[in-house]
Design goal:
By secondary structure, this protein is α+β, with helices and mostly antiparallel strands. It has helices at residues 15-26, 38-41, 44-49, 68-79, 90-120, 126-144, 157-167, 180-190; strands at residues 6-10, 32-35, 57-60, 63-66.
Length: 210
């Protein structure tokens, strides 16, 4: 199955899609990226891939997977026999899972939600999202003060899952200046072979979105 063509449905500004793009590139896997904005996600063809209408979706032969973290696990298990990106040691794997849960929770509903509400007026309490983001960033800064990466001594899918929305937190008016260890970790992720940035967005004044 591993030699079959890979298609990834997403958008350039989706942090969920970006984390998958990062792993595909870091594993050296060729893939086709299909832009799937809201109008595409509402079509019957896309809903046949993911009835929830969400991105990203990965198609690999007859295998179709939704949910970015599930896709990361799939790709790492299938294409990284050494277990670099997803360790097989029970403790190390549990540490990765901890941060995958954080990516689906505090990262999404903190800096991710603050960014979405600020840039695109997504529904939600932006002040609450910024509070969650600040609490998350302080936790990450303390955690990374004695570590180079989130879950292991080397980068794992945990780092990729958390990177995009943390790196783009300022787009939700969540500053990164107070968190030196977080900024150093972001730089380490950005220095990895195959890294490609997610496009930056023009941020409106804070008075217009609060």
């Amino acid at each position: 199955m591993s030699d079959l063509a890979i298609t990834l449905y997403g958008t350039a500004l989706s942090g969920h899609a970006h984390r998958v793009v990062l792993l595909l590139r870091m594993l050296g896997l060729p893939y086709r990226f299909v832009d799937a904005p809201a109008e595409v996600r509402a079509t019957p063809a896309f809903r046949a891939l993911n009835p929830l209408g969400q991105i990203p979706v990965l198609q690999h032969g007859d295998t179709v997977l939704a949910d970015s973290n599930a896709i990361l696990v799939y790709l790492a298990r299938l294409h990284d026999a050494a277990g670099t990106w997803l360790p097989t040691d029970p403790i190390a794997e549990a540490q990765v899972q901890r941060f995958l849960s954080l990516a689906a929770g505090e990262v999404r509903f903190g800096p991710g939600a603050a960014r979405a509400t600020t840039l695109w007026n997504y529904p939600g309490d932006v002040d609450y999202a910024r509070t969650v983001a600040a609490r998350l960033l302080q936790f990450l800064d303390d955690h990374l003060s004695t570590r180079r990466f989130l879950a292991a001594d080397t980068p794992t899918i945990a780092d990729l899952a958390c990177y995009s929305y943390v790196a783009h937190a300022p787009e939700g008016h969540v500053p990164l200046d107070p968190y030196a260890a977080v900024r150093a970790w972001l730089a380490r992720v950005e220095a990895l072979p195959g890294f490609i940035p997610m496009p930056r967005s023009q941020v409106p004044p804070i008075s217009s979105v609060s």
